[in-house]
Amino acid sequence: MQVSINVNGERRSHEVEDRTLLVQYLRDDCGLTGTNIGCDTTSCGACTVLLDGESVKSCTVLAAQADGHEVTTIEGLADGEELHPMQRAFQQKHGLQCGFCTPGMVMASVSLVEENPNLTEAEVRAGLEGNLCRCTGYHNIVEAVLTAAKVKSGAAE
């Protein structure tokens, strides 16, 4: 079947099998390997992308379901060399170690802050509970999200 998806602001059209997952489409057909395949069971969140601005685990969405929609991956967040505020906060607050979960964690965090830029620590932890990090213990990730949220809400110093 033919799918046409607006990926990171660019219309992408490919012939795919009906069963092709969005994560496979992004990696294999679009060459965007920032979206990681971690578990194939929706447990880890490494494959999280934005579908029409909402975070989704792309291992649970068929490419056909995204046909005609807008998908943003980690590669589409930065504006040229200018990092997205969430990417910058993860960098500044050391919100990554091995980096495997980071793209999905960043994408889920972007959606979380878009929904509510006045988050508490508990709300960040609850909002990211579907994304697993095996390295950081989450403290620095939570600090990064709270920092980016302050930037978004205009409360940053």
UniProtKB/TrEMBL annotation:
Pathway: Alkaloid degradation; nicotine degradation
GO molecular function terms attached to this record: 2 iron, 2 sulfur cluster binding; metal ion binding; oxidoreductase activity
Entry keyword set: 2Fe-2S, Iron, Iron-sulfur, Metal-binding, Oxidoreductase
Domain of life: Bacteria
Record-linked PROSITE patterns: 2FE2S_FER_2
Gene3D superfamilies membership: 3.10.20.30, [2Fe-2S]-binding domain
Protein name per UniProt: Carbon-monoxide dehydrogenase small subunit
